[in-house]
Amino acid sequence: MKAVQGSPFCAGLIGKGIQASLTPAMHVAEGRAQGLDYRYDLLDLDQIQVGVDQLPDLIADAETEGFGGLNVTHPCKQAVLGFLDTLSEEATVLGAVNTIVLRDGKRHGHNTDWWGFAESFRLGLPGADLDAVVQLGAGGAGAATAFAILRSGSSRLTILDQDHSRAAGLAETMQRHFPHAVVEAGDDLPAAMARASGLIHATPTGMVKYPGLPLPADLLHSSLWVAEIVYFPLLTELLQEASRRGCRVLDGGGMAVYQAVKAFELFTGIVPDSDRMRRHFSELTQAPPQTALAAGAVS
Q1: Does pTM top 0.70 for this prediction?
Q2: Is 106 among the residues known to form the active site?
Q3: Mean pLDDT, each 10-residue run in order, the chain (299 residues)
Q4: How many domains does the chain have?
Q5: What is the domain extent for residue 277?
Q6: Are 43 and 12 spatial neighbours (Cβ–Cβ below 8 Å)?
């Protein structure tokens, strides 16, 4: 079912502490460019002073108000699963939903985070060597990036996390769904990095609130590519250090944009202009587009 030009369309985001999210602005700008009377509401658990236990009421209220879809973020991506009618294959594997399509009285759960990373990676690091990938972080974002890089063709993925049991659980899940690859939980970061062709960083380190590097700088070598999920700031300390050491790098902005691109398409049935959404994101972050930085370059 495709949204009709000139008609109202409403979507929203459910999560905690989401006032700084750039998703609403990207959706509204693209909706209007597509000729829709597009509205996007923030359903911030902090602002409306409710907990995750109120998710059923929030979704029901959105349906009553005629919403076409909802995005879902922390801490609701797993909690929402029990209130949906269908789940996409990817959402089932990842055990998390970030996009709910509300259509014909049904609630359809999807996960566009993995596709957002995969599309950003495809465009930003073409030809990247996927033979031996190391990933730092096994949380919700890490599950999405692990799925994405394995779907993109990685033959070996080593996952490390401060909580080794969490890394082991994610590795087991990914191994089950990608039997032709080798997926393992690592416990020796220097050894894993020595044989790595690429590094995915999927922890909060590098965000404004959590400055610093997620690993010793000496473990970065020039034959690596480095992909980041953090986008506040776009140019994290990790990317700066990796660039200085000659690595090809990919910032986290693409994942943020392309998850929104896919969610917009699922909501409206309209394929958005992804380049336009990327440009708008760059304007919002007051930085030039950075699909990928050339090796050694710092922008």
Answers
A1: yes
A2: no
A3: 83 95 96 96 96 96 97 94 97 96 97 97 98 96 97 98 97 98 98 98 93 97 97 94 98 97 98 97 72 31
A4: 2
A5: 8-111+255-284
A6: yes
